Amino acid sequence: NDDRARSLLVCRHIKAQYDEGKRDKKAHKGTAAIRYFFTVAGLVVAFLGSVGNPNHMIQAARRAAGSNTDELRLAAQKRSSTVKLPVFSELMNKLEEELWTSQGWDWTGRSKKGIDCKQVFMGIWWAYDLCARVGEYTHSQATDKDHCIRANELIFVLVKPVTIDGRTLGSVIGGSAHMAMVEFANVEYCLVGATSHKGGSLVKRKFISKTTEEEDRSLCRLWQWIKCSGVRPEDELFTRYSSNPKRKSGERVTRKVLCRSAVAAAIKKAADELGFDKDHFSTHSLRKAGRSDMS
Description:
single chain; alpha+beta; four-stranded antiparallel sheet; two-stranded antiparallel sheet; 10 helices; 6 strands; elongated
């Protein structure tokens, strides 16, 4: 009958997917699409079966499309062979040179490569230097609303207080207008109030000072980023603003938040160019290689 003929066609489709190397759900996920299109067209879908009344022929085809023991073993070996490795110094030096040192702060007009590269490197440096999770300061996608650290969770403590608009300030908040009135030479250290925005409370603190040459360089880099990127106090820390050409009236300013995918792509690209298997590197590689911990 018609139902049996349709069931056979579904089974043959599953077999065709299996022959192409697909296994388990990848082999029979097309049945869901078949059910959907038949339903939308107002056609009967009884031949596909249901939870209470399964089609045993299609059930057998689905089971037959599963991975066998050898395939499962190979898959397990493949997973274990792609354990993420820590970022090593040569790779980090390459990322710094290509994404930070050799880039300018150009952020107007059609070309925004300079500031976009610096944005990615700041994300790389933050995880590498502070042992932070990339997910705590990036978005999975540009439209995500997740728990990123904000610029106003950074406080720059000054060596000498400054008087601005009649007020004496011993510190300035990240992204605030007061930063433009303070020289980096007058910054003693930065207090990172939180490394995670989850829970709504400050759970970790970190001091970035000028104790060593390396810390001084890191603090200067962070100061530069906040002053030059246009990030505002309420923004995610690694946000940049870009001024685009006028369309008809007024100047259009675009806003871009650092995404996790951009950080991962940069790491994999650099590892591949150095002759390493890019599958062995991910954003987690940065935290593995981190040289200090949040305390």
